[in-house]
Amino acid sequence: MSPNAPFASGSASNGLERIDLRWRATVVAVALCGVLAAAISFLVPTTATAGPTVTVAQATPVQPGFQRFAWLNAWADHHTAPGGAAAGRLDGVPRMRIVVGHLRRTLIDFGVLAEVEAPQREAFESFGREFALVSTPDATDDAVFYRRSVFRLVSKDPVTMYYRHGERVIAPVVVLEERSSGRRVGILPVHFPASLPSVPEQRRWRDLNARIVKNVVARSEVPMVVAGDFNQRNDILCDLTSPGTGLVSPLATYDGCATAPRAPIDQAFLSPSLRPDRYRVYSGPSARRATDHGAFYQVRVRISDVL
């Protein structure tokens, strides 16, 4: 038989051609499906499962010996609850989820949440299980939180402060111990009353609270952080950084406090040994959704054995 005999038959040749055409058609169809699937993947949005979107960059790990402290006004739940003055805004529970997401992404170790109510406390404890929350029995609370792996709670002592029209509120004076070093730091969360058209002339209560803060700091045996919503700007900045009080601010020194840029009402004041630096303000869409103040704040501190 001739070596060309297998290709001499017309029927065999036609069969091979049909098989070749079918194979080519299959390849083209598969390729088109791949292109179509890729196009659909760009056109159809996927569902996020990693929690709330927070528009801040991922922070690098903090250096040994340093911790990150954060503070913000959490905007009490009743404001956005049904019937509240801002009922059209995001509710308190999803707002607290945004807060927890921010604390995670920026690797915060401890801090203060001003103006927190029961649904928000419960949400924080549910969403942020790596953190512990220290609060008081007050309906609207100013709370301290800390990362369990970094700190342990040493003590929490109540101090009486004053809100609108002299209403008494309890603030916790919290002492934490850094697990890695045994060094301790105290935190006092605050929320001074604002003077508003509906509640004018609240200055006397803010002044009284400032005196209470100074007394707590003077009697403390550990370095202190006082943070929260002061409802004052450069005036409280100058008052609490004055030589008689001895606290420092990441915004300005006492010598320059009066002429410094307009301070926010959410501030932090620290014992000098904590050496605050790397002050940051986050004011993106997530912060504007989570709080009516529109910003989250943080600073790096170094826990020290001295005041």
TrEMBL record:
Q: Where are the transmembrane segments?
A: 21-44
Q: Which UniProt keywords apply?
A: Membrane, Transmembrane, Transmembrane helix
Enumerate the spans annotated as Endonuclease/exonuclease/phosphatase domain.
Answer: 88-293
Named from the GO MF annotations, one term is: catalytic activity
Enumerate the InterPro entries for this protein: Endo/exonu/phosph_ase_sf (IPR036691), Endo/exonuclease/phosphatase (IPR005135)
Name used for this protein in its record: Endonuclease/exonuclease/phosphatase domain-containing protein
Q: Establish whether keyword Membrane is in the entry.
A: yes
Name the Pfam families on file. Exo_endo_phos (PF03372)
